[in-house]
Automatic annotation (TrEMBL):
Pfam families: EVE (PF01878). This is EVE domain-containing protein. It comes from the Bacteria. It comes from Pseudolabrys taiwanensis. PANTHER family: THYMOCYTE NUCLEAR PROTEIN 1. InterPro entries: 5hmC_binding, EVE_domain, PUA-like_sf, THYN1-like_EVE. Gene3D superfamilies: ph1033 like domains. Residues 2-135 form the EVE domain.
DNA sequence: GCCAACGTTGGC
DNA sequence: GCCAACGTTGGC
């Protein structure tokens, strides 16, 4: 199983909205960056991803499961290369992990979130995942 | 193919 | 609201 982190501004799409979608989940649409798209295409059914609130909050608030692998983004023009995956909310993070906490943790100095701060879909290593879960009270 | 201009993201 | 990082566009 692989691990990921997906960013959304809560004004545009929040964790609460994701939770409201229940087990059917929702397509993660709007990715318009090729590096992020490649990550979406690497995702397998059953993979897990952190839901990160960018801009407002700046913290990891929940865990998603990938329930359908990539397919064309219905919000993009026909024939465009953009894809989505279907994700469902798995569980909230009891103690949201803030960007400040991530920056303060030496073991996380190489995390993609800090290195490629503008990338909206990024990989998380198993070690990083384990540590972030611990920091989140899971 | 280079690079300046410009738009967007996201932290502060 | 500002600004750094970075991707994209378009002129040459």
């Amino acid at each position: 199983m692989a691990y990921w982190l997906m960013k959304s501004e809560p004004d545009a799409w929040s964790w609460d909205q994701q939770v409201a979608k229940g087990a059917k989940g929702e397509a993660w649409n709007g990715v318009r960056n090729h590096t992020a798209k490649l990550n979406l295409m690497k995702m397998k059914k059953g993979d897990r991803a952190f839901f990160y609130h960018s801009n407002i909050g700046k913290e990891i608030v929940g865990v998603l499961e990938i329930i359908r692998e990539h397919f064309p983004d219905p919000t993009a023009d026909a024939g465009s290369p953009w894809v989505v995956v279907q994700v469902k909310a798995l569980e909230p993070v009891p103690k949201p992990v803030t960007l400040a906490a991530i920056k303060a943790e030496p073991k996380l100095k190489d995390i993609a979130l800090l290195k490629y701060s503008r990338l909206s879909v990024q990989p998380v290593t198993p070690d990083e995942w384990k540590l972030l879960c611990k920091m989140g009270g899971m």
